[in-house]
């Protein structure tokens, strides 16, 4: 049976909402996937400004802010279905992948947003995929690893997936392997650090899209980069995740102090931080566990692909062989949204969506909270769930 699922996520730079319509065939870990539409809908300027300011300094927001966020998410969902030529009535379910960084302090009630999506589209909507993993002792990251495996696997070609998001994440998918052979972790800092440097260095006057433009005008401060290379996260053995404060406010303040002592500029600091992100990715990609016996394809996704300078530095780490995720059928900017759709399918199929060996959880679990859609859609989803989860204990086995 072919099903159409909807995936939704917020871009790492908090500029807008990514939506994908994904057609899946099969069940569980035997799914084959195809992304058929992937629009990005920008937040209204007022919403975007509140989001960016909240990351730097959490603050209360008026009720109309949440309504504007929810309206943008709903509009993005409808746009994806329209581009895929699929009606909401023919959509199986939807999933929302909430940002964990840099938006941990952003005052958005994601359960309410999910309820609004279900209410206004009539589609059963899942959210909170990381919650169950964390409840079993996991970090909740990388929560998309199993979904990424299904989206990017290939029978003849090994792939190293690099996601340039809030943090930089690497995932190795061996040719013809099973989901248990995939290995990945958060290599180091990503867009969160670069955006924070630009935001604080320009006092909010520059948008994240201009990070690369400023960084390429600077010079790499090698003494500072060498000091950063000894950061505890970078010297830890994987699997690992970037702690919320690892490259947070304290790191940022120390970085600006170092730049003043070196009589350097904001472009110099951005250039150095970009080199740090690229070298962390390169070091991760050179680990023996990330190298197959045969050829390996390096695929980049995430908001960082728009940063030409970061792209250039990452490509150099892999002999200039990196390419965008579009080359293997997944829009680079919509990888998280596509993963949200696949995680939704796994939960509906009664299959654990987390990989405990990567997140640290005590076992595999069904992920997500369910917001029922209209009567017709929910009846179909409920019947499907009941049929696929008849042998419930298998949902607690690691994927």
Automatic annotation (TrEMBL):
Report what the protein is called. Anhydro-N-acetylmuramic acid kinase
Question: Per its record, what are the GO molecular function terms?
Answer: kinase activity
Q: What is its EC number?
A: 2.7.1.170
Q: Keyword Kinase, does the record have it?
A: yes
PANTHER family in alphabetical order: ANHYDRO-N-ACETYLMURAMIC ACID KINASE (PTHR30605)
Q: List, alphabetically, the Pfam families matched.
A: AnmK
Recite the UniProt keywords alphabetically: Kinase, Transferase
| Gene3D superfamilies xrefs | 3.30.420.40
Q: Does the keyword Glycoprotein apply?
A: no
């Amino acid at each position: 049976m072919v099903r159409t699922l909807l995936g939704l996520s917020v871009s790492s730079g908090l500029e807008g909402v990514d939506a994908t319509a994904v057609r899946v065939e099969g069940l569980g870990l035997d799914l084959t996937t195809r992304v058929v539409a992937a629009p990005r809908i920008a937040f209204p300027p007022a919403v975007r400004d509140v989001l960016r300011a909240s990351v730097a300094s959490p603050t209360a927001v008026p009720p109309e802010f949440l309504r504007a966020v929810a309206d943008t998410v709903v509009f993005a969902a409808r746009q994806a279905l329209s581009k895929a030529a699929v009606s909401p009535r023919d959509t199986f379910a939807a999933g929302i992948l909430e940002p964990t960084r840099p938006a941990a302090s952003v005052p958005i009630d994601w359960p309410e947003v999910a309820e609004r999506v279900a209410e206004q589209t009539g589609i059963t909507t899942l959210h909170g995929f990381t919650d169950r993993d964390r409840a079993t002792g996991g970090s909740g990251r990388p929560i998309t690893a199993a979904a990424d495996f299904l989206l990017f696997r290939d029978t003849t070609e090994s792939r190293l997936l690099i996601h340039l998001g809030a943090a930089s994440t690497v995932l190795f998918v061996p040719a013809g392997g099973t989901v248990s052979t995939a290995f990945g972790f958060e290599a180091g800092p990503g867009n969160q650090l670069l955006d924070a440097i630009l935001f604080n260095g320009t006092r909010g006057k520059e948008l994240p899209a201009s990070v690369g433009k400023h960084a390429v005008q600077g010079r790499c401060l090698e003494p500072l980069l060498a000091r950063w290379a000894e950061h505890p996260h970078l010297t830890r053995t994987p699997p690992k995740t970037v702690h919320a404060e690892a490259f947070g406010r304290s790191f940022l303040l120390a970085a600006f102090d170092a730049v003043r002592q070196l009589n350097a500029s904001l472009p110099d600091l951005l250039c150095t931080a970009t080199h740090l992100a690229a070298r962390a990715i390169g070091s991760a990609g050179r680990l023996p566990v990330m190298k197959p016996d045969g050829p390996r394809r390096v695929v980049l996704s995430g908001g960082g692909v728009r940063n030409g300078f970061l792209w250039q530095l990452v490509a150099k780490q892999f002999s200039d062989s990196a390419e965008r995720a579009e080359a293997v059928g997944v829009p680079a900017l919509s990888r998280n949204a596509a993963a949200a759709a696949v995680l939704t399918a796994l939960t509906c199929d009664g299959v654990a969506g987390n990989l405990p060996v990567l997140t640290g959880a005590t076992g595999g679990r069904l992920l997500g909270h369910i917001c029922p859609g209209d009567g017709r859609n929910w009846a179909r989803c409920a019947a499907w769930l009941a049929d696929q989860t008849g042998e419930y204990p298998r949902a607690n086995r690691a994927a």
